[in-house]
Amino acid sequence: QVQVVESGGGLVQAGGSLRLSCTVSGVDFGDSGLGWFRQAPGKEREEIACVTWTGVPEYPSTSVKPRFTISKDNDKKTLYLQLNDLKPEDTAVYYCAVSKFPIPILRVRDFHYWGQGTQVTVSS
Tell me, what DSSP letter sits at residue 29? Predict the structure, then answer.
């Protein structure tokens, strides 16, 4: 059974930083594509970043690059998302996801296993 568990969210002032973590079990972590997404109230789920099985990152959204950095630790089977210079518009539930494809395209439909999300709230 695949388990995806996010942590590290919270309330932070504008300009602050957070590091989100995502632990994954039940799949070959080192061979999987991994990604971060977010969803604000009333909005569609938005892609933030993904990383291939070799660790190559992709950031399609110019609104978060280079404030956000994705990374992974294969030994700890953990995916990270470093959030810097946070803005109130970054407030959302942040989701970690695992793809069955080692080199996924950063889009929701390419990811197959999802965590429950962690709330990030940025106050102005």
Answer: G
Provide the pLDDT for residue 8. Answer: 98
Q: Which amino acid is at 44?
A: E
The alpha-carbon radius of gyration of the chain (Å, integer) is 13
Among residues 74, 58, 39, 40, the alpha carbon closest in space to that of 106 is found at 58
pLDDT tens across 6-29, in order? 999 999 999 999 999 999 999 999
- Cα dist from 103 to 44, 60, 69, 88, 98, whole Å: 23, 15, 18, 32, 11
Supply the pLDDT for residue 106.
Answer: 83
- pLDDT at residue 63, as a whole number: 64
Phi and psi dihedrals of 45, rounded to 5?
-65, 135
Contact 123/14 with Cβ under 8 angstroms?
Answer: yes
